[in-house]
Description:
Layout: H1 2-14, H2 16-19, H3 30-36, H4 42-58, H5 62-82, H6 90-107, H7 113-133, H8 141-167, H9 171-195
Helix pairs in contact: 1-9, 3-8, 4-5, 4-6, 4-8, 5-7, 5-8, 6-7, 6-9
Amino acid sequence: MKRILSFAVLASIVAPGAALAHTGVGATHGLVHGLMHPLTGLDHILAMVAVGVLAATLGGRALWLIPASFVAMAAGGGILGVSHLALPYVEAGIAVSVIVLGLVVALQPRLPLASAVAMVGLFGLYHGFAHGAEMPADASGLAYGIGFLGATVALHLGGIGLGLGINSLGTRPAKRLAQVGGAAMAVIGVVLLIGA
């Protein structure tokens, strides 16, 4: 576990430019760029995959309600971002989402479904806002929005697959793997928060 945490910290320090998919990172025009935007930032990838892992861990209705909450609120956040409305502490909110989701994956607390949906929805709002705020005025808002929401769904599905795969390993190995992966994610989130 020490090795994984050390690697996570080192990776976060060595690649800070790759960590944040926010203002000033490449062109953000149209569908393809909307699809690529969430994939260019470690913070977005980690949070969105963790949402899927959380959904798989809770199972049942959570399997679709948790990702749907994130996607719906990301769409709303994207609209706020495009509208140039203010949302305080966006970068910090995104970093906190990585920390909290990492801890939830690692510790696997018994969260009520409504609490998990609300928490993930709040994080989706911040992630969506960042994507919307960075869409240039001359880009197709609809195509870009479909792109970033499509990438978000794909990352959630990847997280669900990962979570189901981890759960199929048996209780002890699954718990250990979730602890290590979630802890590494939380450490990366702390590094991102310090940078924000």
